Amino acid sequence: MKQVLTGCLMFVMLFCPASVFGQTSDNKSKDKSSKPSFADYQEVVDTNIFIRRKPIPKRNPQTEAQTPTTEAPPPPAPVNKYLLCGIIIENDDRFTAMIEDALTHTLQSVHIGDKVNVFEITSMTISSVILSLPDGRNAELFIGQSIDANGNLLQSGWIPTAKSTSSGSDSGQSSGSETKAAEPASEKELSILEKLRRRRESQLNK
Q: Which helix (H) or strand (E) holds 192?
């Protein structure tokens, strides 16, 4: 009988710890599988949860294709300009003005009654021409001065002296329009124009 009990005790001592150990290892594996892994928190690691982000709107390719493109308007056409280069006196009573077209760089000789673009030349002196504008106004264009197609005087020319103005009026080519003040020309231009003026005065005084 004692031998039987002894055998039973040995059997329990040998196999019970193994079964208990097996249950313990199974419980540990179950605990490990039930715990969250690092992959579960990967999105939290990659994204800062303290920064407020707005959702990125989705683009519709059809809407972008249908959006009309606005083209820039073409630049305005350049306004033509005319420069009074000089005035020639023939036989003490015939005046010829030399006017240059700034766009084509062509020189045109005109007389009283001729037209330059929309301007009509009504009278001349030895230093200027009187232009009749489309709106009824008159503009006096001096030698070395330019005027655009809109009737705006752009740059100053030679200012005539009182003697030259009186000599021009004695020749029967008075203007009768208001003279616009102009700034003096440069020293180089003034010397050329002064020589031309003196030559014309000497011709008229003969």
A: helix 187-205
pTM score: 0.42
What tens digit of pLDDT does each residue of 128-176 get? 999 998 888 898 989 888 888 888 888 655 555 444 444 444 444 444 4
**pLDDT 10s digits, 82-121:** 999 999 888 777 899 999 988 888 888 999 999 988 889 9
Amino acid at 171: S
Q: Spell out the domain ranges in the chain.
A: 81-205
- Residue 167 region, left (φ>0) first, then alpha (ψ -120 to 50), else beta? alpha
The CATH code of the domain at 81-205 is 2.30.30.830
Distance linking the first and last C-alpha atoms of the chain: 175
Are residues 193 and 185 in contact, defined by beta-carbon separation less than 8 angstroms?
yes
Residue 139 has a CB neighbour count (10 Å cut-off) of 19
Query: Any idea what the Cα angle at residue 75 is, between residues 73 and 76, rounded to 5°?
Result: 115
Contact between 81 and 103 (Cβ < 8 Å): yes
